[in-house]
Amino acid sequence: MSKLPKLQSSAPIQKITLHPIAMPMVEVLITSFGSDAGLTDALRGAVLVELQLANGVIGWGECVAAWTPGYSYETIATAIHILNDFFIPAILGKTDLDGLKRYRGHPMARMAIEAAFWSAVAQERKVPLGDLLAAQLGGGIQRKARAEVGVSIGIQPTIDATLGIIEKRLNEGYRRIKLKIKPGWDVDFLRAVRKTFPKITLMADANSAYTLDDAPLLKQLDDLDLLMIEQPLGYLDIYQHSKLQPQLRTPICLDESIHTADDIRLALHIGAGRIINLKPGRVGGLTESLEVVKVCQETGTPLWIGGMLETGIGRAANLAVASLPAVTLPSDLSATNRYYDPDITHEIFTLNKADSTIDVLTAPGLGVHIHPDRLVEAKAAFEKAYQKAGV
Ligand code: OSB
Ligand code: MG
Fold first, then answer.
1. What confidence tens digit (pLDDT) does each residue in 71-90 have?
2. Can you give the pTM of this predicted structure?
3. Helix crossing, 129-137 with 312-322: angle to 10°?
């Protein structure tokens, strides 16, 4: 497939404003690496990026880094530093993002800028972001009208509590259930779930909690007909996963380890996994996301979009990516009421119960709009939480 065209705005980037926010979550998601909840009273921190072009068009993006370097090395504080001191000065006055190329790393900060720029360009062109992504991919690819979605369930105090939540999510209409696992909360737990729900589409996410020595334990999951096991081994590892996958029938899905499209080429080449989780914030933006989409399309690798507990701003961008036809498995893009109530955007995402999908946005640009009063509140909450967290 051909090279992706460069995205350019018709007017230069005039102004970029950062809005650090903290949002109360409906429920905390506990993973094998914990959660930030103790630190911040179940407040999800994020940095929203407001990018204005000289023609007045505005785009928004969200940086999904968390308070602590748990899932990735980036934090809200490093993102604010990198954005203010390097990324923003590198692109002000420009009509493209080439200025970012001289800097390395900080993918979540990078994605926040890319999302804001791409949504501004989509707005200028009067097309929804999903259409712009499809157009950049080329080859006459059309976006889907709905994205298939599932729900992610954190580690609970008891198996019974988990069974209750699964039941509730199934009743809400989610048809793919993802369960977080960790050592001691794995085989017996998943067996109990499978026994209670013999037919549901089930998967497990270990967030890097195991080593290759755990292969015999992980093999026991093969009897449970899981759709996949997500990131069982090291958060930077591809090699060890290539030693594990041949021992399992269950497909391995790589999340944390994948930072570029070339990481996927390597992983597929050495047999480290069979499914890819794409988080635009983890791979450093929408351009790299399209490269990931291209590799998966070319190699027929099943792909889905991961979530980072985004507000409506980040969720809208993820949904646009999830609307590309190469995204063939249900994404971690649940309805708004599973994360925030209320969200920071006017628009809310609802689940289509009949087919476990969410409608892709069709308004020009990002397709969602900030609620100004809630932005003020969320910025005030950030200032309070930030002092308390001492980060
Ligand atoms: O591993 O997918 C993950 C949230 C924070 C950090 C890592 C992960 C997650 C999720 C969230 O699973 C899923 C969602 O946003 O619905
Ligand atoms: Mg994951």
1. 999 999 999 999 999 999 99
2. 0.97
3. 40
